[in-house]
Specification:
By secondary structure, the chain is mainly α. The protein has a single domain, classed as TerB-like (Orthogonal Bundle). Helix 2 packs across helix 5.
């Protein structure tokens, strides 16, 4: 996994000499989790896909081409993974509570992009909230913030 992450970042992104691979792995872990939010209802709605691409580009300051490549790598890692634990563990080890809350907020933004909350999406959101130790109050606040009337 780390070789493909390093290769992606070496090939596509400017980074300082000696950049820590764990930082790159963290970025990929976050994108995997965002990708899972977009496909949780077993269909990638065009609005969810567009929101996912825009968020990835904004969060990591990537070009369109870099965003597409990072998302493709995240899809590959997600498909090969047994679950989200390896990604959430990495994030928990290195991200603050505020950063984890923002990730859950971004997930809600993707989930509600199509205007509908599916049971599978709700289940994923609860699971990720627990895996990332996001306080319930913050989880609900983010949910209500993105819920369409």
């Amino acid at each position: 996994m780390f070789k493909s992450i390093k290769r992606f970042f070496d090939d596509n992104l400017d980074h300082k000499e000696g950049a820590i691979l764990s930082y790159q792995a963290l970025n990929l872990a976050a994108v995997v989790i965002l990708y899972e939010a977009a496909r949780a209802d077993f269909q990638m709605d065009p609005l969810e896909h567009k929101k996912l691409l825009n968020l990835i580009a904004d969060i990591f300051s990537l070009s369109s081409d870099e965003t597409i490549k990072l998302l493709a790598l995240a899809e590959e890692k997600s498909d090969l993974s047994a679950g989200l634990h390896e990604f959430t563990t990495l994030i928990n080890q290195h991200w603050s509570t505020e950063e984890r809350i923002l990730l859950v907020d971004n997930m809600w933004e993707i989930v509600y992009a199509d205007g509908h909350l599916d049971n599978n999406e709700h289940h994923l959101m609860r699971r990720v909230q627990n895996l990332l130790y996001v306080p319930h109050r913050e989880y609900i606040f983010a949910k209500l913030k993105h819920k369409t009337p």
